[in-house]
Amino acid sequence: MTGAAGPPAADDAAAGGGLTHAGLAVYCVSGTLLTLVNKVAIQQFPLTCLLIIIQNAIAVLLLMATSAAIPGKVGALPPITAEAVKQWLPLTCLFVLMLFSSLEALKYISAVTFVVLRNLTTVVVAGGEFAYLGTRITLPALLCVASMLLGACAYGATDLAFDATGYAWLAANIVGSSVYQVYVKSLARQEGMTPTGMSYLNNAISLPVLALCSVALRELPPEPGLIDAADPLLWVGVGVAGARGYRHSTSA
């Protein structure tokens, strides 16, 4: 007699689908929360590259702790070798562009505007996946993407708080995020890395890149009175943003 459970292949597929849906849910929630937290963080800590360095360093530490605590679940972290840096550096530069442009945009536009118009990333990614990865787009999915495009355009046309600088940074974010997402999916197919391993390489390799950008932008030493280093809420916000970034990158 057969039991109530389905075939192993069906069970595995169901489990995989459940994990995918859970990952999507966490990604959506963490992405929205990260935008809200970053809106507050960049107002209190306007040194963009230095802020990202702190957040990404927190993410690296959390990833190392996760790998050490539950190695059976997430696997060992990949070593940072010269070959790994060479392979991941283009992706890391896109990652830095994505983070930097998002924080710069949030200096000028509201979090609502950022979240709504960033939906245009989905439109660009859909085209990129179709053109470069051969992803099939069904008619219902195409209609959903088209509705997102129309909704974003309608919102932008009626945005009373329009700021050209903010919209320029948002456009850079949309382009950078779109190329990044298509590229990272391509690498994921080739390398077969765990989400934790991919996030670790991205965040760790980004630190020296961001340090160079910070020096180039003359963020150090900060201007007197620019930040209140003694304010505990400042560091709580930065720490929370780093933790949210860790969850956001691994769920993605």
3D structure, described in words:
By secondary structure, the chain is mainly alpha-helical. Helices cover 79% and strands 0% of the residues. α1 (8-44) packs antiparallel against α10 (232-251) and α6 packs parallel to α8. The radius of gyration is 20 Å and the shape is globular. It starts with 7 loop residues before the first helix and ends with a helix.
Write the layout of secondary structure elements.
Layout: H1 8-44, H2 48-69, H3 71-74, H4 82-106, H5 111-117, H6 120-133, H7 139-157, H8 164-191, H9 195-216, H10 232-251
Helix pairs in contact: 1-4, 1-10, 2-9, 2-10, 4-8, 4-9, 6-7, 6-8, 9-10
Provide key terms for this protein.
single chain; 252 residues; mainly alpha; 10 helices; globular
Write a concise synopsis of the structure shown.
The protein is mainly alpha-helical. It has helices spanning 8-44, 48-69, 71-74, 82-106, 111-117, 120-133, 139-157, 164-191, 195-216, 232-251.
Range of strand content:
under 5%
CA-based shape: globular
* Helical/strand content category: mainly alpha
Number of strands: 0
Order of helices and strands: HHHHHHHHHH
Query: What Rg do the Cα atoms give?
Result: 20 Å
Query: Biggest sheet: strands, sense, closure?
Result: none
Query: Which residues form runs of ≥5 with pLDDT under 50?
Result: 1-13
How many helix segments?
Answer: 10
Helix content: over 70%
Question: What is the overall pLDDT average?
Answer: 80
User: What gap, in angstroms, lies between the N and C termini?
Assistant: 42 Å
